[in-house]
Design goal:
The protein is mostly beta strands and 113 residues long. The chain has a single domain, classed as Thrombin, subunit H (Beta Barrel), CATH 2.40.10. It is built from no helices and 6 strands. It comes from Pantoea latae. This is Phage head-tail joining protein.
């Protein structure tokens, strides 16, 4: 895999849960690793929901396999500056390619399902 297309800096995040000092449950995200990736948009859509116009984009993200980390749907990627503006991509599916040397992530950005 060539390094040229891997020009975007992203951070992998997984869901995390814990408790606040008051004892209430807290749900958030924890950073797993910051890596390089190739991002390309596949399709987009617009819809009206309760009178508000919403849009969503399906994106394909390629990255190198990371030893010791198993990425699953339910995780997310954050596209970091300087190449991004903090966009959040929700991972919908993970596919191995090139004999497991790289991963193809189908992600959604924008509208929540």
């Amino acid at each position: 895999m060539r390094a040229g297309p891997m020009r975007y800096r992203v951070t992998l995040q997984k869901p995390a849960s814990g408790r606040l000092p008051s004892g209430q449950p807290a749900i958030g995200w924890t950073d797993v690793k910051s890596i390089r990736a190739a991002i390309s948009d596949v399709s987009g859509r617009e819809l009206l929901n309760s009178g508000a116009e919403l849009s969503g984009t399906t994106s394909r993200i390629w990255l190198r396999r990371i030893a010791g980390i198993t990425i699953t749907s339910g995780w997310r990627l954050v596209h970091n500056p300087p190449t991004g503006e903090g966009e959040v991509y929700d991972i919908k599916s993970v596919t191995r390619a090139e004999n497991g040397a790289r991963l193809e992530l189908m992600c959604e950005r924008g509208v929540k399902q």
